[in-house]
Amino acid sequence: MPISGENMAREPEQIQREVLEKYAENFPSIYLDVVRHADLSTISWAPLMYRHPWRIIFGNLNKGNITVAGDAMHPMTPELGQGGGSSLEDAVVLGRHIGNSIIKNGGQFVEGDMAKAIDDYVKERRWRAALLVTGSYLSGWMQHGGAKWWERFIRDRLFFKYIFGFLAGLAHYNCGNLPAVSSSGKED
């Protein structure tokens, strides 16, 4: 009997059974042993979330002094391992824009400038976030692709040779430095 993700979130035994019966049946025994001996209190089920890149590029990600960051802005599949890292990038970029606004205004929070700072943060993060979401999805799609000769050719001869290196290189990114402020509230 199929069980919904909602029910599975509360039933670790069902999650373990589902993984063993449906998802890991062809795994080496060493992996199956890990699943079989997992502490049931640590098992949970959550769906992967995805936002289409064009919704990141063209979508409304802020309004006035309110914005989204991290998974709320750019949920992505785990294939590039950039979800947490990109959330930290968001924090630095948002902090930089807000910090520069506060410094510019003599240590004061000015609502109109704050809205501009948040808008600038969204403009700076939009394209990188869309690229990471797209790259992660594409990487997962290719890695989990089929076994037909042409699918293997595309994956092994084209994707891994020409595209994956670029996608893996996305991990190297300088999101800038946070502004430094002295104890007097002025920029160092």
Automatic annotation (TrEMBL):
Pfam families: FAD_binding_3 (PF01494). GO terms for molecular function: FAD binding; monooxygenase activity. Keywords: Monooxygenase, Oxidoreductase. Residues 59-133 form the FAD-binding domain. InterPro entries: FAD-bd, FAD/NAD-bd_sf, MOase. Belongs to the 3-hydroxybenzoate 6-hydroxylase family. PANTHER family: FAD/NAD(P)-BINDING OXIDOREDUCTASE FAMILY PROTEIN (PTHR45934), OS04G0423100 PROTEIN (PTHR45934:SF1). This is FAD-binding domain-containing protein. It comes from Salix udensis.
